[in-house]
Amino acid sequence: MATNKCKVTLLTLALMLVGMMVDRVASQDYGDALSKCILFFEGQRSGKLPSNQRMNWRKDSALQDGSDVAMDLVGGYFDAGDNVKFNFPMAFSTTMLAWSVIEFGQFMGPELQNALDSIRWGTDYLLKSTNYPGKVTAAVGDPNADHDCWERPEDMDTPRTSYVVNQTHPGSEVSGETAAALAASSLAFQSADKKYSADLINRAKQVFDFADKFRGSYGDSVGSGVCPFYCDYNGYLDELLWAAAWLFKVTNDQTYWNYLEKNIPHLPKRVTRLVDGVLHDGGESFAEFGWDAKYAGINVFVSGMVMNTNKSDPYVPLAEKFVCTLLPDSPSKSVAYSPGGLMFKTGGSNLQHSTALSFLLLAYAQYLKNSKKGTVNCGNVDVPVARLEEMAKGQMDYILGKNPLGMSYMVGFGQKFPHRIHHRGSSLPSMAQQPQHIQCKDGTPYFQTKNPNPNLLTGAIVGGPDEKDQFPDDRTNAPESEPTTYINAPFVGILAYFKANPKPSI
């Protein structure tokens, strides 16, 4: 008997050691993924690149941006695989990077500084974009001309038209999201750079006032400069409330809370979604979150401030309704799941939904931990904090390679990842490889070739596989193979958390 007990004890010890090793490996893997997820943003930089640029196949680009309107608009990020700077999704990406640092920066270790650098690259440009009272830049670069070419950012010879909203041609959604980005970033920099933090919040207040006082949609004001690429199909009130929530968080000024309380009842109850060029009813608004729709984000974010107070309604109830739309066994589930477990919502570039919605699940789980509420009730299902974290972790693990194809959808992570991504700079020879100018149509053969991209856009997360977990790795299939800043930005926070906490909370 003693011998058997000894064997059992040794076996238990061995299993514990294996478990510890697996956890350590997982943690290291998430750390590697975090580093690469942040590094991706260097590959999207526009403007004069700094001496510490690590994605060194990229070089300076778009150094005259803003000259057509007598503004300095050099800098910022290209949103995806093209060479246009769309401020609306850029500001949202900046907000999400900042929120990632605010919630999960303590888990980032040495990557925290890189994360702050990625935020600052966005906010420095957003400060330039709002440098003149009564004006906010909406985009830089003629998108139709740009999309007609396959050119490196360093070679661009298409018009770098600046699209600016003002008091007579307003853009409340791009201005509101810009205010949110500046406010959130102010909070992210509060410890690291107090002066910069103060500059950001002061500008955020000014931009919010402009967005609210001169109301209108930027699609109406700048037209083809942003549409149909990043048209706002769901109105601008959600961006105004999103900005007010962030301003209240940073300033604790009751004016912003009163603004939320007054306007939250007027948010649209349903959303519109563009699918294959056709507008569709996208369902109930409380379940939506992304560059175009901030509804679930508002409710989750505000819930973190009011969960244990008498001000929790309607934020906490709507945040929990949102959570229940994602739970596979919830009676109110409104998303689909692939056979391999990837979350799907209607429309292209699906991983933008997986990362953004998973971030909200994880953030809400942390708010639940800090409150008296331990669970979310979804009809006949009680959902503990650990389940929310497991759901977010499941999406993260799928993206990093735990899926039927065994493919990581983050470029450069793991042994198998996309090599033919829809990205101009990545798919064309670098300046070092071919310093001669590559003209507009001369890039077409590089777009069409089946060869792998010559430059690795490390950390880029592509649009992802289809509903059957299939992925052709084809750069001509933009919805599946194109990376975007707003896919990566929320993933930064998720990776940071699970790097330090590889097992969901009990």
TrEMBL record:
It is an enzyme of class 3 (hydrolase). The active site is at residue 422. Pfam families: Glyco_hydro_9. Its EC number is 3.2.1.4. SUPFAM superfamilies: Six-hairpin glycosidases. It catalyses: Endohydrolysis of (1->4)-beta-D-glucosidic linkages in cellulose, lichenin and cereal beta-D-glucans. One of its GO terms (molecular function) is cellulase activity. Residues 1-27 form the signal peptide. InterPro entries: 6-hairpin_glycosidase_sf, 6hp_glycosidase-like_sf, Glyco_hydro_9, Glyco_hydro_9_His_AS. PROSITE patterns: GH9_2 (PS00592). Residues 30-495 form the Glycoside hydrolase family domain. Residues 465-477 have a biased composition (Basic and acidic residues). Keywords: Carbohydrate metabolism, Cellulose degradation, Glycosidase, Hydrolase, Polysaccharide degradation, Signal. Residues 464-483 are annotated as: Disordered. GO terms for biological process: cellulose catabolic process. Belongs to the glycosyl hydrolase 9 (cellulase E) family. This is Endoglucanase. It comes from Corchorus olitorius.
